[in-house]
Specification:
Length: about 150
C-alpha cells in the first residue's frame, strides 16, 4: 500500500477525466456557474422561464466539451461546434435579460466577455484538432506515432 501511495504522488497531476484538464472546459463551467448565480432570483414567471433556458444553454457549453472529448477528433469537432451554438444562444439570452432589466449593464458586459472568450477558445481548439488531423494524415506513412493527439488535452 505504501508503495502505491508513493507511485501516485510521483505521477503528474492529471485528472481521471481528461476533459477536466482543458482550460476551455474550466471556463465553460465557470460561466455556467456565473449564469446560475446571476439568474437565481427571478421576479416573475417570464424571468423564471428565461433563467431556466439560459442556465440550460450555459451548461450545454461545458457538457458538449466533456462529451466530445471522449470521442474521435471528428466527433469532438462536431461537439465543439454544438458548444458554439450554445454560446450563440447565451448571447441571445444575455441580450433579452438585459432588455427586460433582469441583467444590469455590468452583468450584460461580463456575460458577453465570457462568451467572446469561450468562442475564441473553442475556435482555437477546433483549428488545433483540424491541424492535428491534417498532420496525422501526412504522417500516416511514418513509423513514429504522432504526438498531436495530446495538443487538445
Amino acid at each position: 500500500m505504501e508503495q502505491d501511495e508513493k507511485m501516485t504522488s510521483l505521477q503528474p497531476n492529471v485528472s481521471f477525466f481528461r476533459f477536466e484538464d482543458l482550460r476551455v472546459y474550466g471556463k465553460a463551467t465557470d460561466y455556467a456557474t456565473w449564469v446560475s448565480n446571476q439568474v437565481a432570483s427571478p421576479r416573475n414567471e417570464s424571468e423564471r422561464t428565461l433563467a431556466a433556458s439560459f442556465c440550460h444553454s450555459a451548461l450545454d457549453i461545458a457538457l458538449n466539451i466533456a462529451e466530445g472529448s471522449s470521442r474521435s477528433k471528428n466527433q469532438f469537432d462536431h461537439n465543439l461546434k454544438i458548444a458554439k451554438t450554445a454560446i450563440r444562444e447565451c448571447v441571445v439570452y444575455t441580450e433579452v435579460a438585459h432588455n427586460l432589466g433582469f441583467f444590469e449593464d455590468a452583468n450584460y458586459e461580463q456575460s458577453r466577455e465570457y462568451l467572446m472568450e469561450l468562442t475564441r477558445m473553442i475556435g482555437a481548439l477546433i483549428i488545433s484538432l483540424q491541424r492535428s488531423g491534417e498532420r496525422r494524415h501526412e504522417d500516416a506513412t511514418d513509423s513514429y506515432p504522432s504526438t498531436s493527439d495530446e495538443m487538445a488535452y
